[in-house]
User: What shape does this take?
Amino acid sequence: MVCTFDMNLFIFMLVLLLFAIESGGQQMYSGNLALDCDNSDQSGPSPAFLYTCNGLQPSCASFLIFRTQPLYNTIMTISKLMSTDPIELASINNITNSNKILPLNKELIIPVTCSCLGQYYQANTSFVIHSNSDTYFTIANYTYEGLTTCDSLQRSNIYDQYDLHPGQNLQIPLRCACPTVSQSMVGVKYLLTYLITWKDSIQKLSNRFKISSQDLALANGFSSVEEKEIYPFTTLLIPLSHEPLSSQTRTLGHKQSLSKRYVIAGTVGGIALAILSFVGILLWRRNRVNKGEIVKWVLPKDIQLGIASVDQILKIYRFEELEEASDGFSPQNRLSASVYKGSLKEKKVVIKQMGANAPKEVKILQKINHFNLIGLYGFCEYDRACYLVYEYMENGSLKEWLQDKAFQENQTWNNRIRIGLDVAKGLQYLHNFASPAYVHKDINSSNILLSKDLRAKISKFGLARSAEKDQNGNSSIKCPFESKGYLAPEYLEDGFVTTKTDVYAFGVVLLELITGRKAVYEHDDDGEEVMLSEVVLSSMCDEKYAKDKLKYLIDPCLQARHPLGFVIDQDELALRLIKLSIACLEPEPARRLSMNDIVSTLMLIQMDAQNSEAMFTA
Assistant: This one.
């Protein structure tokens, strides 16, 4: 009896501790601060940027509301804008034709993965500038309809606000959040980022989404429903106990849209802002002072002819700029034989001296645009050498991260699943949405790079080739030694290359994430090289004994303990991931999964893993 009481007391105290940690756990409503481009968060996180990391989970499934506009009015164009799976997007919105032009101002539910990066939550996408009239303000408040902010765009990109040009690739952090401890305790599973429009109110939104108006107010930092006015073109978080339904969306009437052609004026930090009316094709842009000239936004007619065909414009650097950025290519800044880190305009970059593959890699990276593919900022030709300037990835390669004991505290199932999902989404984009579609052909853990927040990006496109280039799929290009252990049987036997070649390599990467072992490693007994894929396939061939062999395959770093001290059984999670990797390693290419299937499966596994962790830690 005493033991039971003590256990209940312990759990009660643990819950109290979690609530104490959350202190002020709800997000704060930004008001019109989000419409300013000159806010500061030096004294602490500010809602003028994004939503603060204060939730129970560092990453979660989340949803956004986006309203169709002239350039983004089909499932395909919107999925590209948001870097989301078009099949999932169509399904959740109950739309059967992905190319059908949707009504103007129709609300769509956008499913995203929301992750804590630094002090803010964000979902990630990227955007290629189309017009000389684009600014951080118009991209945040017109193109993305307030789902990002001017301040966060300026922080996420290396380009000065007055130095934006067509073709430049921007990283776009979207506003999202994960439920707090207190929200999770009362059944909130998702937070929906909703863009406020005319005549919206907390009471009307609570009725529409069938939630308590008090819960909606508290989720956005209001102590009461009547406390504060809400403004159009800013966002609210809608707490939901289930996924949002397409029946909860609406299409704003054309008459209503045109009747709201007026501007909310405000002065913040001495800068006059004008608020755009996003709905309809009659758009107003804030007059801004740009180097002494008043610039008026006009929608260029030629943009509508081919958004996806716009190549990114890369900056041409002077060699002296790169020398200064890398401190004269000093040994202290060297990351490998020909790779250096540096700083350009206070933004960390990587400078890489390239050989014969440089022109091909530049050409490919100009045409692709996705958060999970490495960003190329520019290049420099000097003394018969070519230097490429990439975004900096603080945690190096996946191969290094898995093997370095210094990173073991971050070796969790959630981190590894998120890394696998990032790689899968990058390949999904290359295979299905890039124009033309590409086969990367050299996927391995050395070519997957990790940011400081453990977000994965695919790099090294020197061997990539168009998926449509050669109908028979044969390739005369041989992969480097680092690809040993990742090469599909049809490539080794006949040089046959398709998108399923990348799927096979991804299956091996997924095994590395599960086991912590290299794709090719030395056997402890005899020192001979062993293929990781062969070890796992032989261990799993008899399903009756497969689960018994899991403990020998799973990386010991992934062992998780309950706060009470016992080891949490995660064999079912590991088995699902191993079965997914085996489905990628099918000898016959036609029997392997597509990257669309892999992304969907991993998203389900990720959601279940997070729910399981929340259950054990709450």
Summary: Confidence is low (pLDDT under 50) at residues 1-5, 9-25, 254-310.
